[in-house]
Amino acid sequence: MKRKIITTGDGSTTIHLEDWNEQYHSTHGAIQEAEHVFIKTGLHHTKNTFNPEQIHILEIGFGTGLNAFMTYLEAKKHNFSINYIGVEAYPVASAEISQLNYISELKAATEASIFDSMHACDWETKKVLTEDFNLTKRQQFFDQINDQEAFNLIYFDAFGARVQPELWTVDIFQKMYNALQNNGVLVTYAAKGSVRRAMQEVGFQVERLPGPPGKREMLRATK
């Protein structure tokens, strides 16, 4: 599938899949989307509402590492302790990673080595990036996830239902529900009615919230 690096509306880059006309992030702004959906509506909501001593995060679609890196930066700023699991079926090539401009756009030059380590570290092995941030990358398909009551927070950042509807089904959300601890939270940029109903069918309480720039709504689901 043909891929190219494009610049989104906030100046940050992402990967465009030409055959699908789909991107890894919103064309309105990759960093803006991650900040709104995953950091503000997910990470801070979980910490402020439930205050776990350590926040166990599962990311569905590790991709470019943007969500993980922004979570690291936010955790360092606020002294959060994070155990981060990133699941990815098709890892992004290092040649593409090197073309992304997240370090400069986030003004995070002092943390460039952390971003590099996130991509250089071995798969299936826990990497202690700092005293308060552990990362484990797992290369697996999403339907192979069988964790039980392991996470406080899920970043559900799969490709959209238009191109991969099989990732937005009752079966997948049942796995997400099972993977969360009680009061666990799942956040996603998606807002389709079929997605909301699939979440509700497995037992989630679902909120429709204002979306990131360029998108009217997003969903947050709580176990």
Provide structural commentary:
This protein has helices at residues 30-50, 66-78, 94-97, 102-105, 112-120, 170-179, 193-201, and strands at 3-7, 13-17, 22-23, 55-60, 82-87, 126-130, 133-138, 151-156, 180-188, 205-210, 217-222. With 223 residues, the protein is of the alpha/beta class. Strands 6-7-5-4-8-9-11-10 form an 8-stranded mixed β-sheet, sandwiched between helices. Helix 6 crosses helix 7 (193-201). The chain is globular and about 40 Å long. The mean pLDDT is 97.
Summarize the structure.
With 223 residues, the protein is α/β, with parallel strands linked by helices.
Radius of gyration: 16 Å
Strand order of the largest sheet: 6-7-5-4-8-9-11-10
- Tally of helical runs: 7
The whole-number mean of residue pLDDT values reads 97
Structural class estimated from helices and strands: alpha/beta
**Succession of helices and strands:** EEEHEHEHHHEEEHEHEE
Helix content: 25-40%
